[in-house]
Amino acid sequence: MKVTPLDLRQQRFRSAFRGYDKTEVVALLMEVADDYEHALRETDRLQQDVARLEALLNEHREHERNLRNTLMTAQKLSEEIHGNAELEAKRIVREAEGRADLLLQKTQARLEDIQREIDGLRLKRRDVETSVESIIASLRNALEFVREQEQRERDDKILLHRPRTAEAPAPASRVLATGTQGPARDQQPS
After folding, report:
1. Rg for the chain (alpha carbons), in Å?
2. What is the pTM of this model?
């Protein structure tokens, strides 16, 4: 059974002979009631403080739990990002190597094509040089032939315009031009 401060203040005792002084007992009861009331208030205040501190502690524990979860999630995410970054980097490197190999192959093929074109052009140049040299030789021969013909014609004209004797030997230029020493066919009048 719980005694309240009000119970202490309202408590009345019977009188007895040779009992305690009523005034002292009442004063003591009032003082005890005040102390008891003060202790109850202090207990209530402390209980409220404890409840408030427990709520604050629970809140801090919840924050700590959330922070741990966030930290673990961030760590897992960091590991995933790191792993994904490594995989992505490896993929990018593989793709770059593949493109580089393909580009190298294309460049090599193009280089071989160009080398073949150069070789073909060198052959054509040799053919053209040979043709030009042949044409030059032919033209030189033709020019020499034409010059020789013109020289023969001049020599023939000169012979035609000179008077000839029947017994005179053929002129030296006629011997050189025709390569024979006999009478020339030009000696007949035209």
Report:
1. 70
2. 0.39
